[in-house]
Amino acid sequence: MPLNQNKEQVMTLRVIIEVSGQELWGRIEGIGRFMPTTVGSSKKEVLDNLLMLIADYRKHEGQEDEAWGRIDPGQVAFEFAYDLQDFFQEYSILRQEKVAELSGIHPELLRQYASGEKYPLAEHAMKIEHAIHALARALLAVSVYAA
Fold it and tell me: Which domains are seen in the chain, by residue range?
């Protein structure tokens, strides 16, 4: 689901990120009659552009779009979704072999996903996502000692 709302009325919008050369493309799908899509050189630039697009849409042609009318551009948070090829390009610091091991997926198959040669089934994508989140939790528990 692309949209989430909590008690403070902050809306969480899912931004699908794709990498093309040095550019990042971002889009929000599945809300009303509008799919804001933009490009930028950084996530911040993509998000700033999306906020401008949303505000402009609401002010002009989207005045009657109830779905977007509930969204205040000043009260949004973003979460990111990547296809695996773009994820491993954006986070090239991660070792694909370790993610494959943690997810229980053969390393060669993960390399094919990361290169765009093959596309994962939803079950494999979920296993990979869980492995990446487990790795992030493990890193959050790390303390670095300086003598």
Answer: 3-82 (3.30.160.620), 84-140 (1.10.260)
